[in-house]
Amino acid sequence: MPQSSDIALIGLAVMGQNIVLNMNDHGYKVAVYNRTVSKVDDFLNNEAKGTKIVGAHSLEELVKLLKKPRRIMLLVKAGAPVDEFIDLLVPLLEPGDIIIDGGNSFYEDTVRRYKALKEKNILFVGSGVSGGEEGARHGPSLMPGGAPEAWPHIKAIFQSIAAKVDGGVPCCDWVGESGAGHFVKMVHNGIEYGDMQLICEAYQLLSTLGLNNDQIAETFTAWNKTELDSYLIEITANIFKYKEEDGSYLIDKILDTAGQKGTGKWTVLSGLDHAAPVTLITEAVFARVISSLKEERVAASSVLAGPGDVKFTGDVEKAVEDIRHALYASKIISYAQGYMLLRNVSEQFKWKLNLGGIALMWRGGCIIRSRFLGNIKNAYDRNPSLSNLLLDSFFSDAVKKAQAGWRRTVALGATLGIPTPAFSNALSFYDSYRSARLPANLLQAQRDYFGAHTYERVDKPRGQFSHTNWTGQGGTTASTTYNA
């Protein structure tokens, strides 16, 4: 039946299939296509059997199945495959038709595609999709951005399939123009890296205190009933309970080397590009890198000395509570850093990101969904121009209450020789951010001494730069100043 489908989806891997089934559940007729055409028939004869979903064996056929304006969503591997499908689709489309990239694309690629398609009068949307396979099937968090003219044509579909909170509020709203949607998803993934690393450090410390897998599972289950209530804490408890058929714990058999797909690295590089100190996320990325050096670490373990045979002899219950405080305070830092990056880029690109609204989009469906995202929304409701989450009363009070246990936890790790790169970095960032004066005056003196890079003075107006001939032989010519 020509021109009867509401939307098309290209890419029938697990995420694509589940999004299609989700759309079908909500009353939309979906046309599907896959580069390996046999997957189309397999899907229609199995997972999609008995639904209204229709298949196409060519892009030409797919386009003919769609109502106008045509809406085509790509869920294919990021990078070249997205460009290849766009190039194949454009000659088949008309002005006002819509292409949606729902993959994990780098936001600068989305900006490029948005600009190129705008010249052809094709509306391009780059949408973050979070929640994994389960979220795609039953309600993901969706972060669409790009051509604003496209939003009225996809809003109903996206908000109907999205996760719902507070009795029906969809975890999906328009993010902003150009690459805003994929940028927000990238920052989401960066925060996810930080969250996961913090939980892993808590796990190692709990193990060092002598807790077994059952006790660790009980601990995370209890923590999930506190302000740490979140999807990641919930699944962590479940992981520690999981046993194989022989009764052994699966967690103990998993090799301690972590993989990554690049979104954490993109967040770190964007932080450098846009002067946002996402230091905790950076540590989380490098923690995965060092975990991959398994053979080197094993060899080093027999050569490099630690603090000796030091064992914990204190109050285990109190130490567990300290670790909980450290995890909560550090989690706040992770979000604060992510939001610093969102704010900086929003201002630079004039995207006008709704920072409180983004928190609402993350409350359901996505991997970092947690209780305190509502507190982030409240913080921006109180002060839409808030420069840092830590300056909001809720979060400053929360960190103040957690601070003593946080410091004891970092000290415990150092004493026992347990690495806590994310906990330690979060605390270091906090102490740096709250310091009215840092030793960067010496750093500037050094730069001026060896490179005539100039410095500002406390007794002169900001923006007025000075240079000193430190040795009497360097002259008075200064290097060009710049900000980075």
Class from helix and strand fractions: alpha/beta
Distance between the termini: 57 Å
Strand order of the largest sheet: 3-2-1-4-5-6-7-10
The biggest sheet amounts to:
8 strands, mixed
Number of beta strands: 12
Counting DSSP H or I runs of 4 or more residues, the number of helices is 19
Helix content: 40-55%
Low-pLDDT ranges:
none
Average pLDDT works out at 94
**What's the gyration radius in Å?**
26 Å
Q: DSSP strand (E) fraction? A: 5-15%
What gross morphology would you assign?
globular
Topology:
Layout (H helix, E strand, L loop, with lengths): L6 E4 L3 H12 L4 E4 L4 H8 L8 E2 L3 H6 L6 E4 L5 H10 L8 E4 L5 H13 L3 E8 L1 H7 L2 E6 L4 H11 L2 E2 L3 E2 L5 E2 L2 H29 L4 H11 L7 H11 L21 H11 L5 H13 L2 H8 L14 H34 L5 H7 L11 H10 L10 H24 L4 H13 L6 H12 L3 E2 L8 E2 L18
Helix pairs in contact: 1-6, 5-8, 8-11, 8-12, 8-14, 9-10, 11-12, 12-18, 14-17, 14-18, 15-16
Polypeptide structure, described:
There is one protein chain. The chain is of the alpha/beta class. The chain contains 19 helices and 12 strands. The protein has helices at residues 14-25, 38-45, 59-64, 80-89, 107-119, 132-138, 151-161, 180-208, 213-223, 231-241, 263-273, 279-291, 294-301, 316-349, 355-361, 373-382, 393-416, 421-433, 440-451; strands at residues 7-10, 30-33, 54-55, 71-74, 98-101, 123-130, 141-146, 164-165, 169-170, 176-177, 455-456, 465-466. Strands 3-2-1-4-5-6-7-10 form an 8-stranded mixed beta sheet, with helices on both faces. Helix 8 (180-208) packs across helix 12 and helix 8 runs antiparallel to helix 14. It starts with 6 loop residues before the first strand and ends in an 18-residue tail after the last strand.
